[in-house]
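Hello,

Following up on my earlier ticket. Below are the two sequence lines again, exactly as submitted.
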Amino acid sequence: MFKRNESNPMAGHADTVIALGVRVEGDFTSKGDVVIDGEVTGTVHTDASLRVGESARIQADVSALSAMVAGEIHGNIRVADRLDLMESSRVHGDIEAQTLSMAPGAVVNGRVSMGAMEAQPADEVEGEE
Amino acid sequence: MYSYIYDEFVQSPKFKKELDTIESRLTDLGMSGKVVRLALFRDPSDIIAGEVSRGLSTVVAVGNDETARRVLDVVAEYPGTTFGYIPLGTPTHLARLLGIPDGVEACDVLSGRIVETIDMGVVNGKRFLAGIASAKFDARITVSGFRMRATSPGSLQVRNLAVGFVPSPELVADPRDGKLEAVLEVEERRGWNPFRKRRSGRSVLPFTHMEIDGDAPVTIVADGEEMTSDHFDISVEPKMLKVITGRGRMF
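Thanks for your patience. The regenerated structure is below:
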């Protein structure tokens, strides 16, 4: 694993980065931190934190321990802990989170529910085995 | 018990003085051993196999990164055998990653005997230690469960350690974690204006098994060796190689 990410400051110490200019299709699962700036179709799951950048376009159900969203998600979001929706975020789907933070300008088209929920562990994690 | 594999080029007069100094230092350190000199048509695998069967425990490549690659490819076949490296000539990027100084100073690193057991990568059945690079990469990557493709041609590196010269340790992957890292760099044009600045993205994906499929044949360079195919199967062999490293190793 890299000691730290080389170029993307948003990536921080992310284990996996799907950058701008990359398209992912299928069931994407991870146990580590994930940053998405590209396009994803299918499902996204991580046992750790997820950052969805401003340029990201996700057409997938998303689940994570915590998440920060600045891009566009078409799909349901399930976050066990804290979900931060930044001002540029666009969510078209239902949201489940323990704690929700919404910046002015953030768009949510869907049902929002908050309260106690349990994290769903990744059954199988490729790249993090 | 040590065996020193001298590459053909280090036997030239240019390296004689340095080689004499190294041999003298090894004797002082009580590490002298059998010297095997490679020649044009002399395959190191037969030589090393013979030495290992006679109880050899440490095989030391004396030469450059190409020498090291040829030797460690064979050493990895024999669990329990340790790989050492005395860098002479160029390039010696691998030595730098392992924290081994050039020339006679490498003898003291060998003597210090800090042994790490590290992973090796395998691409289409061929092992690599440092990594794989593909400069003009435009193919589909499949990791179990999902597929990944750049929207425009980019460059791909698959790292067990690092590819080529690496300026700082932050850019080196950990070869002890049982994973390889794919790094896909793509430049994305912003809008229709060709003069407008492009944005580049660097995707990083840790994995244990990956397949690459190209619509046309893809050329990769694995530890300096060029391979061309429309399909590559890449995986990691965890804890495959015992290698002597210096304190200044970059992982």
